[in-house]
From TrEMBL:
UniProt protein name: Polyphosphate kinase
Gene that this polypeptide is encoded by: ppk1
E.C. numbers: 2.7.4.1
Polyphosphate kinase C-terminal domain location: 335-499, 506-678
GO molecular function, one term: polyphosphate kinase activity
Species this chain originates from: Flagellimonas abyssi
Catalytic function, reaction form: [phosphate](n) + ATP = [phosphate](n+1) + ADP
Source taxonomy: Bacteria, Pseudomonadati, Bacteroidota, Flavobacteriia, Flavobacteriales
Length: 691
């Protein structure tokens, strides 16, 4: 096997390059202006999560005194932390430059995000009134000088670090007081000020507080006050104890609670902060050398930009699309009856997600339905899915829910839903020891004349009506009894996980996903060596399993043509002579978040096509329960082939993966029309309704 210095891209570095693609969207003039600002928010939110999990994991290796070579692909953990910090500082600098440009363009459109120094008299009156009515009573202000212990700062909460320069009788000597003000989370970060003519004005809550600082520190005889923003990010990995006297839900609850006091992994500060203030804070907070200290701009927690007010300026935002119906699948009739005769697939958000809730609500009321089983990973804050399941219980159905309490950053939400569902009589299963349940499956058993018949659906994404508006995902509805018998075995595994089942149709992790896909790749390798057409087409979120990367390199060297659409992390390097010259890979970042997992293998002219909940990541292949499903219906098979090709031909929002890792856009060939795949996809489904 040919080895190169950069045979693999480091997982963490690849993730940062993915987030750079998100940052590109905030700079792209083809993206509506307010949506560009919201992409800055997504970039910031992604970065927060990166430090909570990925950076924190590497930092744990360093703190344990280990090199991390075995788990980091030969890279020293300490060196990796330094490289990450360098990249993040560079990205933060770029993001500040982009924000300045967006701010300039907003002003040209008569939208002004003003600072406290730009407030006029009428705005000042409004701001002070707003402050005393809504903000003042919510402020948590802590004077730091005389405290024996530094207060515990909340993870990713934003704080104003305040420096109060005191007066004295002779005015010869100044004494500084230092304080922290926590920016209240229960108040909108963006305060819309009264419109003046055709001009809209917005002030950040941070600046509104700065404007009113004299009202906060009235007890001091001060000469001047300055305030600069800081925030910390804490390690978000769950440390689950082994106390046998606690239930699993109690252990998860305790671990989530422990996050509040977990070790800091990042300290971000306004780079214009006074040196003495910064030094005071770092000493008091015991900031260590292995912590990532990031100089930033005036504002932090920029994830809040995702909620920037629309101000009624629909001309500066993406048009909302109206989700389409699926041809032949009517919301008016019985979905179970329609699915009994034919498989259907919905591709959200191009199709309406309402089919999923309609399916469950129908099953909840159907007198013939005896049992409903479903896996839940992430639910909407006000979930119609949960409501339908409770409704089913109230109608005498046996309802079993496998709810994953360790769904990253949704642990508390899932704990609350677990308690609610349990109180309503739903039978809950809390997973398999040592494995996360990431599969997206639902099974309904119905008593019919010929006996029990199964109906169900399987998806590449969560059963969440909120994210279904912005995540692209396939959901297959089927009454294929072979597939659903396999699905029943998966639910059986949740109950008796010491027993390893065999499946005729489904591809199930952790036992079969890696081996099955490896065999499918081997089949293409054999075809290529026999001089026959051999190809693989893959669409997924991330590719980080070095074993699967090696397998794809092997296939490339054998002559298999491989096309890959990977939204996020891709540890494979395409186009390297003697290693991956037959592999092309792109990433699409656009209006919607590309989320489906689709796998197509040429199979000597009779393609094998699968959808799955699993990316090719070590955790998905070996440490999670994932389910992949074959597509048998000829119409759906063609539809998935079509949708892959639409995405693959994107020459507007597609970035090319290469050894340079520069996120270069795919260039439009001379005479070639521009194709923006997400817009083209919607038109594709509109045309299907017309034919």
């Amino acid at each position: 096997m040919i080895k190169t210095k950069n045979e693999y891209i480091n997982r963490e570095i690849s993730w940062l390059h993915f987030n750079a693609r998100v940052l590109q969207e905030s700079k792209d003039p083809r993206v509506p202006l307010i949506d560009r600002l919201r992409f800055l928010g997504i970039f910031s939110n992604n970065l927060d999560e990166f430090f909570k999990v990925r950076y924190a994991t590497v930092k744990r290796i360093v703190d344990a005194g280990k090199t991390g070579k075995s788990v980091l692909g030969g890279e020293r953990a300490k060196d990796l932390l330094e490289e990450i910090t360098k990249i993040v500082i560079n990205q933060q600098t770029r993001s500040l430059e982009i924000f300045k440009q967006i701010d300039k363009e907003l002003r040209e459109k008569n939208i002004f995000i003003i600072r406290e120094t730009e407030v006029n008299e009428s705005q000042a009156e409004f701001i002070r009134d707003y402050f005393f009515k809504k903000v003042n009573q919510e402020l948590m202000t802590i004077i730091l000088n005389d405290l024996t212990e530094f207060p515990l700062l909340k993870d990713t909460a934003a704080y104003l670090a305040v420096k109060v320069v005191m007066k004295n009788g002779t005015a010869r000597k100044k004494h500084n007081r230092y304080a922290l003000i926590e920016i209240p989370k229960g108040i909108d970060r963006f305060v819309v000020l009264p419109k003046e003519g055709d001009k809209d004005y917005v002030i950040m809550l941070d600046d509104l507080i700065r404007f009113c600082l004299d009202s906060v520190f009235t007890m001091f005889d001060f000469e001047s006050i300055s305030a600069h923003m800081i925030k910390i990010t804490r390690d978000a990995e769950l440390d689950i104890d082994n106390d046998l006297s606690k239930s699993f839900i109690e252990k998860i609850s305790s671990s989530v609670e422990h996050r509040k006091i977990s070790d800091p992994v990042r300290f971000v500060y306004d780079k214009s902060i006074d040196k003495d203030t910064l030094q005071f804070l770092k000493e008091k907070m015991d900031i260590m050398g292995t912590d990532s200290v990031i100089p930033g701009g005036r504002y932090h927690n920029r994830r809040d930009y995702m909620g920037f007010p629309s101000l009624g300026r629909h001309d500066l935002m993406y048009d909302k699309i109206e989700p389409l119906p699926v041809k032949g699948l009517s919301m008016k009739g019985s979905l179970l009856d329609m699915i009994a005769h034919k498989d259907y697939v919905i591709y959200a958000p191009y199709h309406t997600f309402s089919y999923v809730t309609k399916f469950l609500r129908e099953a909840a009321l159907d007198p013939k339905v005896r049992r409903i089983q479903i896996t839940i990973y992430r639910l909407a804050s006000d979930s119609q899915i949960a409501s339908a399941l409770v409704n089913a219980v109230k109608n005498g159905k046996q309802v079993t829910v496998q709810i994953e309490l360790q769904a990253r950053f949704d642990e508390q939400n899932n704990i609350e839903y677990a308690n609610y569902l349990q109180d309503e009589g739903v039978n809950l299963i809390f997973g398999v020891p040592g494995l996360k349940v990431h599969s997206k499956i639902c099974l309904v058993e119905r008593e019919e004349e010929e006996g029990i018949k199964r109906y169900g659906f399987i998806s590449t994404g969560n059963f969440n009506e909120s994210t279904a508006k912005i995540y692209t995902d396939y959901t297959l509805f089927t009454a294929h009894q072979g597939i659903l018998k396999d699905m029943s075995k998966v639910f059986g595994f949740f109950e008796t996980n010491y027993k390893i089942n065999k499946y005729k149709h489904l591809i199930v992790s952790p036992h079969y996903t890696k081996s099955t896909f490896t065999k499918l790749i081997d089949k293409e390798i054999a075809l290529a060596k026999a001089g026959k057409e051999a190809y693989i087409k893959i669409k997924m979120n991330s590719l980080t399993s070095y074993k699967m990367v090696d397998k794809l390199y092997e296939a490339s060297r054998a002559g298999v043509k491989i096309k890959m659409i990977v939204r996020g992390i891709c540890c494979l390097i395409p186009g390297v002579e003697g290693m991956s010259e037959n592999i092309e890979a792109i990433s699409i970042v656009d209006k919607f978040l590309e989320h489906p997992r689709l796998f197509i293998f040429g199979n000597d002219g009779d393609p094998k096509i699968y959808i799955s909940s699993a990316d090719w990541m070590t955790r998905n292949l070996d440490f999670r329960v994932e389910v992949g499903c074959p597509i048998y219906d000829p119409d759906i098979r063609q539809e998935l082939l079509d949708t892959f090709e639409i995405s693959w031909k994107d020459n507007s929002k597609a970035r090319i993966f290469s050894e340079k890792q520069d996120n270069a856009y795919r260039k439009k060939l001379k005479g070639q029309p521009e194709l923006r795949s997400q817009f083209e996809m919607y038109d594709y489904y509109k045309k299907k309704l017309e034919n």
